[in-house]
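Thanks for the sequence, V.! I ran Potassium binding protein Kbp right away. Repeating your input here for the record:
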Amino acid sequence: MGLFDFVKGIGKKNTAAPEPQAAPTTPQATPVEPSAQEVANKLLGHVKSLGLPITGLSVSYNGASDLATVKGQVQSQADREKIILAVGNIDHVAKVDDQLTVSSPEPESKFYTVKSGDNLSKISKEFYGDANQYNKIFEANRPLLKNADDIFPGQVLRIPA
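Predicted structure:
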């Protein structure tokens, strides 16, 4: 458990379906930032959509500090880390307060922040000395990654031992 830092504003846009809203009666000059509760609801929906096993999941968001707090219980360290990354790699989030508990504690993975020009083979070469071990990193980040080319600068990835 602890506090994890992310780069705010470069994460994926949260693709959870927005709540239907009534059409505005007057045009708005600037886009309205979502409320903290709306962000929290979208983060919760995003984590649930990944299908990771978690009991008692709750997500809160503080817009003033861009802090998302995640609570619940998971079976494995890998699921814990995937949930933290799923929340932290969203554009409104700068920090994730991990309050998840793990039923079967295991050693933590390393985290790596993707740089411009990186690909999974290059990251694999850096951590394992073998570019062909990229699939280990890809599998460790599923379902967050849909394919091996689905990474972007600033994204944080799990690097298993």
